[in-house]
Inverse folding.
């Protein structure tokens, strides 16, 4: 079964186009190293919660939008090998010019338990 890396970040609204360009560059590397799909989703309906929410999770400011992203891999072994290559790739040097605050990114790896349609 597939393996998913999920990410949530806050991106300044003024950096939307810069973020899209940045994502296209790095998402292509994920695909090169074995990912089967990458989704980058700009927040459109991200409500404030009473206890917690996406905006608070990444300390989003008023002039920032929440971006929800995931990378789908065929399996965890492919993900582990692909991420190792990704982190060692010399193109990662350009990642220091991220159009968002990477310290506020939340991320994790997930094993799907339901996938529809099958």
């Amino acid at each position: 079964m597939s393996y998913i890396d999920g990410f949530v970040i806050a991106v300044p609204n003024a950096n939307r186009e810069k973020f899209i360009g940045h994502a296209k560059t790095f998402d292509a590397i994920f695909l090169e190293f074995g990912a089967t799909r990458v989704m980058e989703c700009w927040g459109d309906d991200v409500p404030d919660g009473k206890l917690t929410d996406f905006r608070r999770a990444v300390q989003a400011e008023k002039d920032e939008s929440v971006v929800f992203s995931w990378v789908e891999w065929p399996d965890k072994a492919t993900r582990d090998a692909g991420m190792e290559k990704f982190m060692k790739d010399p193109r990662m040097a350009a990642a220091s010019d991220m159009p968002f605050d990477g310290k506020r990114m939340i991320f994790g790896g997930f094993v799907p338990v339901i996938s529809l349609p099958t």
